[in-house]
């Protein structure tokens, strides 16, 4: 099915592709036996090799500069170029891949040199991540988790003033598909007076939006909120794997540490800010009585068009389901509209103290749960801290993740009259502890 | 004054040098007009240029490999080689620089090509820092800070089981000498019901030991405590600048964020684990009644010889003191023996969940205060949260840092019969907010 205003491509599989039509064109780093890791662009079931496209002389001017920056083994240099370069490359690619492209025959003749079959390629982390920051802007998640500790007063007094965030571990961020070894750690068993050591018994996932920083800011110079959007290169899915029992014991007073630093997974494709333009919308109004944010976090245009309408999904596939030939079971359906703060507010806040953001830095949004259980983005919430097991079509139940369980995050934007934009998948399967 | 067993060098300024005698030989990255940033070794008032030494063919075998890895614009590759390479380079350098070196005349003839005057050089960050982790192992600091919030129960229940730490910001770590712009941020004034925005009014320093990670560990494979020491390349001074008013408002529930991420300063020289060997000692016995740590944190040899005896100093120089020609005033004298956990315990804990440490990662120890006010490593402690001003020889008082104030951290190891080992300085001057 093709949306009425979808441009058609001569790459057949792109037309009506739910994720990677000509309207998306996300960037990533791929390799294939014989091809070292390099920048590529997803189109249908193919990956356009930017190095091969450059060798064929397909780009000029700013688009050429952008393609060169994106053709190495990471996208950092491309991210650093900012929005004009991204736009120029996007327009050039849309022209080249359009069904009516004047160069169509020449490009088709290049065959797999230009367009690698995605299924034969391996995908890598799209950038070298300098710093990773995890936010906490999913207000329903913050409320749900707060309720487990403070039933009467779930949200702390700072929540509606401060886009809460903390520094995460960059060295353990993996691309989708990497297995996740269950972490060992210290935990305090219920009723115990002393901690014990062993594999986490409360392993969980967190459904998050990942945000790739493009152009950085100079040290000491805050990014004004009106300019914050232009510092974002693109988006991905992010699974902030969490060991809840380790977290509960370690997190006071300095925050989560080993309960998170064993693994974070991201989807491989960077869906650009430009591709998501049609899915920008107004930030949902703050509930009656909520304070107005401080001026450095407030921009009318950002409030009117700075939110994102992206459907988010969590699926679970257990070993027993695999054996029974069952498909992954959807266990949550949520949306980025559950963010209490916009991405621009996160960027403005992060830099307001003069902290320098750098191309390739990664933000996580925090868990994006909705208001109702079907939309809860973690097992902690779905099972009420392990008290209400989840029932699976295999006849199994789950409170937290078991070895062999695979979590699959998906994201897609849909809007009447527009081609859909997909993020691809963020997958990770749990392996037994060491 | 030269210790009785100090080896003499033909570099005259090294003999009896309180910081950089032949017994120390710390590594760093330096540049000079006409010389791009490169690895060097401090010796007296000189820096030995490792690239020039390689060009002159001064090293063989493992020492040559180590010097090559250390001769670029960061020490990461050198750190990755681990202890055998560090030892080989150290022995080769001690042989070359010894007063009785057979190559003395040839080396002296190289003059400034080999030995740059330190005063004419600029020092840089010694490594590209992948991840920065700040611990909280100074038990007197944790107790002092805890008392401000919980007078009856200052230490949380996990403190004596868990070497508490959190992820810090890597992009804003500077080398000594870089100015520190006072951060802007959200704070909740005493008695106010809503936060306000502006320059921090409670800017503070924190006296910490910095720990440079050498050889890393494979993802998913914990570093056993008995091997943890061999993953540490060396040490530096670290100032964890802190905006206390921002911190108090933002830190719940996920820990410090913008209150720290505006700046962290480190001293430029990496004092190697080998140079500090004579200053290893037994970990001070745990107070009666303290629990024995879990087995993954316990190693008899580490308890007997894994602590460090390093004298630490904080000095303050204000604008008025500068105008009056006064010297920096010492405001604290402490020691690394105030660490409740050893460095090996920190490394073992950090990796026990499978988190990969990488060459060039940096740890901060946490503030190393002693038991008495003269040894408190932050103004928060020295002034009891701003209630008891510090009196300075200029006639001024301080509760927190004012614009123009400069903080200078120093560290030195002394032991009868051994040459002293100094760390050099970690300096930073406060500039007005943007």
Show the helix and strand layout.
The structure is a homodimer of 434-residue chains.
Chain A: E1 27-32, E2 35-43, E3 46-49, H1 50-55, H2 61-70, H3 76-81, H4 83-97, H5 104-110, E4 115-117, E5 122-124, E6 132-135, H6 139-149, E7 165-168, E8 173-175, E9 180-181, E10 184-187, E11 196-199, E12 203-204, E13 207-213, H7 225-228, E14 232-239, E15 242-243, H8 244-250, H9 258-261, E16 264-266, E17 271-272, E18 280-281, H10 300-305, E19 307-308, E20 311-317, H11 319-323, E21 329-335, H12 343-351, E22 362-364, H13 379-382, E23 390-391, E24 397-398, E25 406-413, E26 421-431
Parallel strand pairs in A: 6-22, 8-16, 9-26
Antiparallel strand pairs in A: 1-2, 1-5, 2-3, 3-4, 6-7, 10-11, 12-15, 13-14, 13-22, 14-16, 14-17, 18-19, 20-21, 20-25, 23-24, 25-26
In brief, what are we looking at here?
The structure is a homodimer of 434-residue chains. Chain A is α+β, with helices and mostly antiparallel strands and 434 residues long.
Give a structural overview.
- Two copies of one chain form a homodimer.
- Chain A is α+β, with helices and mostly antiparallel strands.
- Chain A contains 13 helices and 26 strands.
- Chain A is about 20% helix and about 25% strand.
- In chain A, strand 25 and strand 26 (about 420-430) form a beta hairpin.
- The model of chain A has no long low-confidence stretch (mean pLDDT about 95).
- In chain A, strands 6, 7, 8, 13, 14, 16, 17 and 22 form an eight-stranded mixed sheet that branches.
- The longest helix of chain A is centred in the N-terminal third of the chain and has 15 residues, at about 85-95.
- In chain A, helix 2 (about 60-70) crosses helix 4 (about 85-95).
- The first copy, chain A, folds into two domains: about 10-125, SH3 type barrels (Roll); about 130-430, Fumarylacetoacetate hydrolase, domain 2 (Alpha-Beta Complex), CATH 3.90.850.10.
- At the A-B interface, strand 7, strand 10, helix 8 and helix 9 of A face strand 7, strand 10, helix 8 and helix 9 of B.
